[in-house]
Design a protein that fits this description.
Keywords: Metal-binding. GO terms for molecular function: metal ion binding. It comes from Gracilinema caldarium. This is Cupin domain-containing protein. The protein is an all-beta fold and 114 residues long. The chain has one domain: Jelly Rolls (Sandwich), CATH 2.60.120.10. It contains no helices and ten strands. A six-stranded antiparallel sheet has the order 1-2-3-10-5-8, with no helix packed on it. Strand 1 and strand 2 form a beta hairpin.
Length: 114
């Protein structure tokens, strides 16, 4: 199966998880059709935007940072992130992410369920 970019659902979320600004999600596939996963998307945060803190139980979320810089709160600890980094959150842990740079922060988000 091939899914072309123009056929992917684009979603804009204001204040995602009580964060700031507008988050753009490009859903590579429909999460309802995935097995052992519920999200596979490209996420873009403009400068100053964020996804608020949230917890992952019975699943693990991976952020693969593609472009930009930001700050991740990983179980209460603030850590700078940049292109090439991977953030892993699961087993009841919580995280948030904010674009602290001057260019868009772009990353792939994958949520694996178990």
């Amino acid at each position: 199966m091939i899914i072309h970019r123009h056929a992917m659902k684009v979603e804009l979320k204001e204040r995602m998880r009580d964060g700031e600004g507008t988050t753009t999600l490009v859903h590579f596939v429909d999460g309802a059709t995935m097995k052992n996963a519920r999200l596979l998307s490209e996420i873009t945060l403009p400068p100053g935007a964020s996804i608020g803190e949230h917890r992952h139980d019975s699943e693990t979320e991976y952020y693969i940072i593609l472009e930009g810089t930001g700050m991740v709160k990983d179980n209460g600890v603030d850590t700078l992130i940049k292109a090439g980094d991977v953030v892993v959150t699961g087993d009841g842990a919580s995280h948030s992410i904010k674009n602290t740079g001057t260019t868009p922060l772009k990353f792939i988000a994958v949520i694996i369920t178990y």
